[in-house]
Amino acid sequence: MTASAMLNVNDLFVSYGQSQAIHGISFGANRNETVAVMGRNGMGKTTLFKALMGVLPLKGGRVEVDGVDLSKEESYKRVAGGIGYVPQGRMIFPTLTVEENLRTGLENAKNKDIPEEIYTLFPVLFEMRKRKGGNLSGGQQQQLAIGRALVTNPKVLLLDEPTEGIQPSIIKDIAKALNEIRKLREITIVVSEQVLSFALDVADRLFVIEGGRLVHEADRSNIDADRIKQYLSVRRTAARRAPGAPRPPSARPPAVSTGSGGPESHSDRRAQCLTPSSRST
Hints:
This protein is of the alpha/beta class. Helix content is 33%, strand content 23%. The protein contains 11 helices and 12 strands. It has helices at 45-53, 75-80, 98-104, 116-121, 123-127, 138-150, 168-185, 196-202, 225-232, 235-239, 266-274, and strands spanning 7-16, 19-29, 34-38, 60-65, 68-69, 83-86, 156-160, 188-193, 205-210, 213-219, 256-257, 263-264. The strands form 3 sheets. A 6-stranded mixed sheet has the order 6-7-8-3-9-10, with helices on both faces. A hairpin with a 2-residue loop joins strand 9 and strand 10.
């Protein structure tokens, strides 16, 4: 954690009931800096972002924005404190128009006008401002979700897997827009991601999260792409399985004895369940 950082995260712990999901994560992100948190599914990216936004309570630790502790604040107060949030899956309102979706971010603002720069960054939103959000493509919905977060005028913008389900040409547009946003507003951007090429297009620094812990950090100028790809590889899970840990369940259960000298396969037992009984009446 650094004193000059716009976002300071210190020794964060998050649990789902008795199951601990985030284990003492600490990092900082400076003003006018983009940081990427890389990791495979299930490694804790979304849990971390929900905790930063106040959607999930902290078990321990501290979240500061511009020197102000927001750790115990509810989500709407974190928005007022300077955090903008684009959740995984976009979560726009499908029955509202594009314009109405953008205005939901202005609910507590004194000026209810949609900033012109939103339409400058995302021209398609202006063209489709009267169209229902549910009728937009995935890429257009992602741009809408980013625009909705930006109208709150955040100091820190959190984006949880913004490229998920987006076609490659739109991914390039989103990367370009994020770089333009940072240039125009000099804000801090933290993005969770699995696509390394996208992260390298937008981020100054990259972290890797695995098992709820940050296990690797690198500046973009010193990236070891092969090493990060190893962290993102599914095969790494099996390779890193702790000694004595249970193996994942196999696709085919072991054979069991039928009592007649031969093994009974899973398909045999399934077939018995699906055929009528041959018992005499």
